[in-house]
Amino acid sequence: MKLGVFMVLFGDRKLEDALDYVASKGLKAVEIGTGGNPGKAHCNPAELLENEAKLKEFKHAVESRGLMISALSCHGNPLHPQKHLAQADHEDFVNSVKLAEKLGVEVVNTFSGCPGDHENAKYPNWPVAPWPNDYQEILAWQWENKVIPYWTEQAKFAADHHVKIGLELHGGFSVHTPATLLRLREAAGEAIGANLDPSHMWWQGIDPVQAIHILGRAGAIHHFHAKDTVIDPINVNRYGLTDMQSYTNMLDRAWQFRSVGYGHDVKTWADIISALRLVGYDYAVSIEHEDGLMSIEEGFSKAVSNLQQVLIEESLGDMWWV
Q: Of 6, 94, 104, 131, whose CB has the highest number of CB atoms within 10 Å?
């Protein structure tokens, strides 16, 4: 496996400076934002697709530092009921797939999106309960009329361009659990897979190791994020796991994102890495930082140190076994 980082962390730095910093930490992979919520600070696909010289310069900047691009990421909502918002995210996705093919990047990461509750809705609607029955009707309408048709078309488009789609399992979107990912994969094809982030499993009450086994046995893990979550044992009883408080209200929230090793211990992360290897995943482990208690540099460095320790111990374990 290659240890990497989601470069949105360093969006305030020039690409070359950010790559130098990442390489200095001993990392081997970068995940680069190409639109949607991650933005385009380091890479504007439309510009690179139109300019071969800039494309070569961009590729050289990464490869000359001994790095590889694990994924292009354009997390957005291409199913948003407001057409202009959906179209913008859709165009970012299409351009990201086209650019990934030119760069030889295997994966484009994004969200599945979430539709509204009818054709003329204004806002997304994320049903999370089977009753009252209205929610079941909304969910069926969304999947049959929006989710499956859209992603069936996009999966074919990605496959035609030799690219896999890594959908991040994230609350608020139609695909947010192993079951919903596998449902869409069965309907739309094997280009669909997970960009699996343990942090989003923990706050939904899902064991990431089990999620890895469920998805890995189906060959459905295309990319992997490394981010932690801590659940407050007192606040969770007040607000529940679907806590709607702002992420900035850290003292009172039921759960919050942390850097690797600060929500769960290194043994837990070792179990996660072992599970990935057991199901045959041998690609990037991409660090994502959303820890409100640490600066970017501190959180990133701690995550790198903890994951390097895990990967080294895993390698030594293999040597001993041999």
A: 6
Number of continuous H segments (helices) and E segments (strands) in the chain: 12, 10
CA-CA-CA-CA dihedral for 125, 131, 136, 138, to nearest 10? -30
- pLDDT tens, 32-84? 999 999 999 999 999 999 999 999 999 999 999 999 999 999 999 999 999 99
Q: Is 65 buried (19+), middle (13-18) or exposed (0-12) by CB count in 10 A?
A: middle
Q: How far is CA 109 from the centre of its chain?
A: 6
- 77 Cβ contact list (under 8 Å, min separation 6): 85, 86, 89, 111, 113, 114, 124, 173
Partners of 168 in the β-ladder: 195
Q: Please state, in angstroms and rounded to a whole number, the distance separating the CA atoms of residues 96 and 93.
A: 5
Contact between 54 and 48 (Cβ < 8 Å): yes
CA neighbours closer than 13 Å in the CB half-sphere of residue 290? 18
User: What does the alpha-carbon distance between residue 4 and residue 26 come to, in Å, rounded to a whole number?
Assistant: 9
Two tokens, residue 277: 């290897």
97 burial via Cβ count (<10 Å: 0-12, 13-18, 19+): buried
The pTM is what? Answer: 0.96
**Which parts of 171-278 are beta strand (E)?**
192-196, 221-226, 228-231, 255-258
Q: pLDDT of 254-273, one tens digit each?
A: 999 999 999 999 999 999 99
Cβ–Cβ < 8 Å for 195, 224? yes
Residue 197: both structure tokens together: 């982030």
CB 229 within 8 A of CB 263: yes
Angstrom distance (rounded) from CA 92 to CA 81: 17
Q: What is the DSSP string of 119-157?
A: TT-SS------S-SHHHHHHHHHHIIIIIHHHHHHHHHH
CA pair distance 16, 19, nearest whole angstrom: 5
